[in-house]
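Hi C.,

You asked whether I'd gotten around to modeling the 489-residue construct. I have! Everything is below, sequence then structure, no commentary in between.
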Amino acid sequence: MATPSHPKHYCGVFGIYGHPNAAELTYFGLYALQHRGQESAGIVTTDGEKFYPHKGMGLVPAVFSGEVLHDLVGSAAIGHTRYSTTGSSNLANAQPLMVDCAKGKIAIAHNGNLTNAAMLRDELEANGSIFQTTVDSEIIVHLLAQPARPGGHSALVEAVRRIEGAYSLVILTEQELIGVRDPHGFRPLSIGKLANGAYVLASETCAFDLIQAQFVRDVEPGEIVVISGQGIQSIPAFPEHTRRAFCIFVYVYFARPDSTIAGSNVYKVRTEMGRQLARESGIEADVVVPVPDSGVCAALGYSLESGLPFEMAFVRNHYVGRSFLQPSQLIRDFAVRVKLNLIGDLVKGKRVIIVDDSIVRGTTSKARVTSLKEAGAKEVHFMVSCPPHVNPCVYGIDFPERNKLMAATNTQEEIRKFLNADSLTYLSLEGMVKATGQPKNGFCLACYDGNYPVAYDDSVDKHIIERRRARGGGLAAELAAEAAQRRLL
């Protein structure tokens, strides 16, 4: 499978409690979070007694018709839009996941990636648990379904203390909506409130804007919030944990520009990254051109700081979906042009600065440089609004393994030559952090500096559960087989 030219989106989660139109509002919440995942979508509602689920493959409006939403009755709901980070893309792995156990009905939607998923699954299966999917989120469902212990929500606290890695969760029971954020706070999760008093949870605040909910606050790292008829209760699941590790790439690429995360508006942060890039580069040029849509904010910031004119020379085709054509050379040649078309008159004879958020594989970046030069650009200077990605992400972003990351296997000069650009400039790590206005020690920067906040086994990938299942072996057998294969290589 070809490495993506940009990182894949991860999942979006949404929850609501206390509104008669819970399904419809969840639909619109997921619509606002569609950028976080386009593989599948699902909603589960409850009327306090029964659960009403629906999920399917594809985009939110394709999965949910008016008739489907009409049948999702109840005043509480959770929803999920997915890109797979553990487990394949199929309907069985679509979320929310549900279980009917001794504790009652439980549904869960998960954004993130568990680093100890395979180990926990082995343990649960050894104790009799039967799994229906190959996603790590089902492990959380089984942990929650374990026999209740005295102490109210202590079983929930115990369950989240067993899992490691990145997770923002929305959980639905017959009587409660629950939000959970891992102790490092890798992924965002916010609380909002509607005019009728209903509470909502969402991965990004742009979902609140669409349904006219008022932002209340972020769920704190390591916090569990329980929303019920009695209001909202906060449970500190990790009171002793102080290390924060919010994924900085959320600001660089993943979040919508109209979202506010950890008190900082994404649009403003990206624009400041562009300003900082201009301060660091010092390149003389005539015009600044963004790669739509991911490079627009940074390019605008670069233009504002440098005083160079800003031109939307690349025009994006917004009606391009996924291609199911075979990747022949003819199709590949068209694929690099079908999403963006260049207005040649805006760049002909000019020294052009082109701005994008990242370079993963470099293929599409090279195509943009080629288009500019074919249109008569005198010079092309490629600017990237973050540092080089040299390490894979194990916390829920689908960066490929290290040897497929261009910056991990090539020098900056080699990348420049591959792109055929006249210069290549990355934003410094310090400049990127400075643009957020937040302290460096509050971020996960592992894809840039290799410092992983949560330990992981680099032999475990997103498909290990499926491969282990097919071979009929446990985790130990799987890792041993992989180690033997590496020795043969």
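If it helps when you're writing up: The longest strand covers residues 104-114.

Thanks,
B.
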